[in-house]
Protein 1
Amino acid sequence: MSEPFYTIAVTGLNAVDNPGPGVPVVRSLREAQSFGCRIVGLCYEMLEPGAYMKDLVDVCYQVPYPSAGTDVLLVRLKEIQEKEHVDVIIPNFDAELFSYIKLKPDLLRMGIRLFLPSYEQFEARQKYNLADFGASCGLKVPRSFICTSPEEFFKENWDFPVVLKGKFYEAYVVRDKEQFTSIFSRLVSSWGLPAIVQEYVEGTEFNLIGCCDGEGHLLAAVPMRKQYITDKGKAWAGVTIKDAAIVGLAEKFVGEGRWRGAFEMEIIKARNGGDMYILEINPRIPAWVYLATAAGVNIPEMLVHCSLEQPVSPCLDYEVGKMFIRYSWDMVVDQSEFAEFSVTGEKHNRD
Amino acid sequence: MKVNSDIAISQSGYVFNPQTGESFSLNPTAIEVIRMLQDGKRREEIVEEITSRYEVSQSAFLCDLDDFLDMLHQYDMLTNE
């Protein structure tokens, strides 16, 4: 019997110093044991490196930024669907998830399936809701303060240092009031109000990639210790570890919240006392997903089956001590490729 | 006192703690000591074996051994079973 073949569209093909998860997601899909696939890249920018990786991506289309609204995105996806007959979309950016959650019924009518959390689940783990969410699930979250002005925070008389986070992205350790005021302004001008202040917990950072079926069952959970961290706080090298307590946090999260889809938990184990705190829960596959694939758990493959409502068995065993070391690589391409993509909004890598 | 059974130690002296993701390099004497701990040898037996094999006084080695054992404890690599 020939293996099934699916057309899968993927976003997040940027592979810069803070890389999107698209390229490692595609790499994992290419290694799927249970199906073959044609990969359609959905790019916001002409220079997203994944668009030029001919061994990985068959064809790319430019799509409008989330800020253009869901109507514009839907029109573009309809045009793409007429040509490509996409079976599944795997969106890989936090900022676009709201649009895809909203468009899910429209996309289903077009024959495109997704496996995403509900809007309520998506909102519950937002940075500004995480403390309440943690309390409801029995997960420890560092003491937090939702901040709309520095003065308001200073009245609370917290000790420094604290961690100051933007509404969507960026986080800084802040050591005094002057630094707080300056970073607050920068974060708010980039990401809007509010900013989030978290108690600074000194300890070791771990990440976990997981996938849940929406019924409270954990399908996959692979924890990783960051071994090399960039100035943006991103892991540039890491190693899979075996820690039942960390996997237990993921079980609590999916059991209580009945999460649907892939997720990443950022965890810190406090140096004093060893308590584990959840720093963030990201509602999508992280950029280090290929480490889990190489360790024996192919979460993008799993997501395709979940999207197509096919039965998926949990895969909770993985190779411990598998490492990844990220690197950058200069691709050289003919300018005509860039020109084709810029002028037509399409880039055909393979027939 | 036992080395945590999850700890992986290569022949070259690379140590990986799968619970924490930490890794270390051991010098040849430390490899010998950790192998003895894995074999269930007690502190006194380790001192006797090392001082009979190398030119080192008991007091000097004991001082180094205790430092090393403290370090292993600190990194959660030893259990007191």
Protein 2
Amino acid sequence: MSQFLLVFAEMREGKLRQVALETLGAAQLLAQEGDFIRIVLAAGSNTADAAAVLSAYGAEIIYTIEDEDLEHYTPDAYAAAIQAAVSEAQPTVVLFGHTALGRDLAPVIASSMGAGQISDVTSIEIKDGEGLFTRPLYAGKAFEKRSFTTRPAVITIRPNNIAAAAPDASRNPSAITELAYPTPSLRSVVKNVVRKTTGSIDLSEANIVISGGRGVKSADGFKPLEELAGLLGGAVGASRGACDAGYCDYALQIGQTGKVVTPEIYIACGISGAIQHLAGMSQSRIIIAINKDPEAPIFKVADYGIVGDLFDILPLLTMEFRKVLN
Amino acid sequence: MKIVVLLKQTLDTEEKITLDQGAVCEDGVTFVINPYDEYAVEEAVRLRDEHGGSVKLLSAGPERTAEALRTALAMGADEAVLITDERIPDDEYAVSKVLHTYLVRENADLILGGSFSVDRGGGQVAVRTATLLGIPHAGSITKLTVSGGSAEVHRDAEGDLEVVEVPLPALFTAQQGLNEPRYPSLPGIMKAKKKPFTRLTLDDLGLSPNEIQPATKQAALFLPPERKAGRILKGEPAAAVQELVSLLRTKVQPDTTAD
């Protein structure tokens, strides 16, 4: 029997996010002969543009739902929009990115559908016709593989881990269907949004993370990290020590409390490498440590280390990258 | 105001994970209140002190969870309920059903929990419970102000801050930065011993194991391969930096198009 997989393609500020293509990639890994992939786009604006881009990716149908209620995330507005697509598609599997939005929305949809959910999936394999989902426990100190015992099923995938879908010229463009926004009664009201991250890249999606610890010594101490991140198109993170000391916002914290990141390159500056921090970044592809203390535990997990003061090393590093990038 | 805090006991984040016969080894490890739930407990106690009312702790978990509940009582919560039953599966769909069954009779004004647990990290149970109860929720909050019949919260949304007004009853999950949890005082610890502590089973809730069949199951549990220490780039800082950049260029570039 054919399965229908419904992919929530997340947008941010009117644009498709990279994680949207990764979510679609996850659906393609799961889809077997005779299955259909459908996509839902729900946002305050620009869903038609995003649908036009996605139509080359081989999905059967793309649903678009657009309303000013969807300009800012509220669980009520987004759940109503996704439910409209769920009623239309009758999916056996619904997939989300494990982002701030997806993490909050997926359990609402799962609960409404009476579905099980496997969160924060980092890889997918098919065994005996069933999906097997690898996900971290204890922020990556251990891993488990899980499977569903029932349908429907909901999955959230961790950004940066599952290969993004690619356009598929051998398939017909997707049919694009506009769905009416069901206008639910909104219980919560977003009164204000303070964009603290304008222009910068989200930590969990960043390919390069430059992270500071107690060694940065002050809020100003993050400046050389920000400069390098800006040059490389990366994001700035922090250890718990730096957050607790008030050098930066907790939103930047990487670790078992805080965020788990898996970038291509992780540069730890002035971070000693407590076990709870290591849990949050050990799965990065290449780890670089810069620390004054040659005995710092961070060097035990780093691919490359430089023993020295981050305030000496980082400006040199930025200069060197600037040279080779030009 | 009637406040309920959903609480889970987790391994201390300083603990290393070891496996023993296909399970996480619990011998000799330290258990704590899930750090995010600790913010929820602190916030609940402060709100009660400000507005009056009561703080009830609710947990579904093994018997060892009693210790975490005692600590939260010592922080100032008034009462604890531990739903402990070996027939409750390790699955968020099932656990939220158990909590919902208890809470549906509770008519709490405010339910607080952590934004996720640092062990399984699914981030599902609290939000699922709110959805089952039919009450609104806001996740990852860093500020909570209650006045009249509604709450104003600050939400952390990937670094952006959203100010959201939510009518009560509602459920909120705590993010770091919400408050600074207190350490239990000695008088607090003494008082906690006399506070009401109820243990319940599925039978007490009138739930049959059939109603909470798990929707997912674990097929394997393993530790990631240990990372090996790499190379320390020696020499003058400028030379070390130059070598690093050239290593990165050869390491990263050929692979970015792979996969």
